[in-house]
Amino acid sequence: MSQTEELPAIPQPAAPARFEEATHASSGGTQWWRRSVIYQIYPRSFRDTTGNGIGDLRGITTELHQIASLGVDAIWLSPFFASPQKDAGYDVSDYRAVDPLFGTLGDFDELIAEANRLEVKILVDIVPNHCSDQHALFREALASPAGSAAREMFIFRDGLGDGGQLPPNNWQSHFGGSAWTRIHEPDGTEGQYYLHLFDSSQPDFNWDNPAVGDEFASVLRFWLDRGAGGFRVDVAHALVKASGLPDWHGRADGADTPGYPFADAPMFGQPAVHEVFRRWRAICEEYPGERVLCAEANVHPIEAMADWVRPDEMHQSFNFPFLHTDWDAAALKAIITRSLKAFDAVGAPSTWVLSNHDVPRHATRLGAPSPALRPGDGLGPGDAQPDPVLGLARARAATLFMLGLPGGAYLYQGEELGLGDHTELPHEYRQDPTYARTDGERLGRDGCRVPLPWNDSTRSLGFSDADTGWLPQPEGWESLTRQAQESDPDSTLNLYRKALELRGSHHLGLGNLNWLEDTIGGQLLGFGNSGVLVLLNLGSTPVDVPAGEVLLASSATALGAAPAGTGSLVLNPDAALWLRPPTA
Ligand code: GLC
């Protein structure tokens, strides 16, 4: 059955749905960010208007109406600031400038004007933990003596052992290798080390120094004054480090700890970091229009993450535990219940996310042979390849299920086209620093960052006039272009459109959740929210659908007929459904 054609009233001799007694609230209040759908644009892969193979701000302005028409509230714009691009722009050399690769400040202003016209907010991705080693402040620190005010903007320390040959502590970089790099002092001698939790080109700021806080307060105002709707805050858990920088035996790259349980790490989740965001919240509140802060706070457990969204701190925090949950009904139910409880306890909405620019896309993850693909690592040509049909079916079902949940949702560009990763990207194209820093042991994140396919007008599928973008697109994307999906009622694009429209008209984002009692042996997950029953079949056999009117199914083959004569329906495996139960 198509998800868009007119659906007849279905005879439903099936039993009515019965719910558990407990109700799980999303949060109080009706502000836009409590129910928002925020779409992540990764500029370099969105749309190129200059023919250099790299997406740009003008490309975003040109195509923004297509994203707005999906029914999203805001765009989270990954970094477009001046940057040597060692970590795809998360290495910023000037926080108040647009990198020429992406355009000019004038282009940003035009983007804001178009966004205002379309009533979509633009959230700027701010990177406060570290900058680029090409930033003027870091250049000045290198040129200044140990102990100088310029060095105090960063985390410089003397080395240990004879002649300082050993780094100041045992911390590992998130991208592999030591988190310390030794410099040459201005006189040419080997000198101090600086801390970089990420690549050596990304020195960490010293947030114990009030001058760092003042600099960022000014940067926030710069973008708020230009019309930014708020900020996505990069690595918001890491700004403040434990005093004395004690050794830690976990790995900052998460390699031994799937799911990133960073509890107790001296470089993450330090109490003083919350003062930073209290100040930022107060700055946002100086401006009209409910400007927001969204935290990338990768801390565990989720109750700890909720500290980032207490009433005087940020508005939202990405729910990574949800993203990392396996395709398992009990596990999903547990994390959703726990998330709603944890965030509601601090008066914040829970958020939900399935894909972003740092993890394999969910159409790949959910079809991959091993469900335990590690965050930060895509698949490569030497790996067992995912099943694209299974991956897409589950991805569509997972999205429909997610968009039924109360709270805020995040979408990553291209997931509305059903895109998976480029899982056979030849190694010579890899640009993620993880790949080089681990000598190829970890493939990194390039596979989920491939330029979008728009139409059949050019060899790069409308992304660029160049034949290929900065990363090549995989085989088979011709049939997944936005243009190809536009008029197909069963396309993934039209599933997203319809789901977002119904999510809005039924006010699902502001609702409460009641779990369906029956899980049919643990394979069905269902909940009621605002008069809509949301069902997801994670098992291997069809399940009976309770009485109700079908609003939307995750695919044309999601529903089947129950055994002859019963007149009711079944929900097939790897499929989801929105249903309106009969009113009593
Ligand atoms: C965040 C970004 C990631 C980046 C890292 C360092 O995790 O999402 O892409 O590499 O921070 O800035």
Automatic annotation (TrEMBL):
Broad EC category: hydrolase
Keywords: Glycosidase, Hydrolase
All residue ranges annotated as the Glycosyl hydrolase family 13 catalytic domain in the record: 40-449
One GO molecular-function entry: alpha-1,4-glucosidase activity
Family affiliation: Belongs to the glycosyl hydrolase 13 family.
Region of interest (Disordered), ranges: 1-23
Membrane-spanning intervals of the chain: none
EC number, as in UniProt: 3.2.1.20
Protein known as: Alpha-glucosidase
Residues of the signal peptide: none
Domain of life: Bacteria
Pfam families named in the record: Alpha-amylase (PF00128)
Taxonomy of the source species: Bacteria, Bacillati, Actinomycetota, Actinomycetes, Micrococcales
Protein source organism: Paeniglutamicibacter psychrophenolicus
InterPro entries: GH (IPR017853), GH13_cat_dom (IPR006047), O16G_dom_2 (IPR045857)
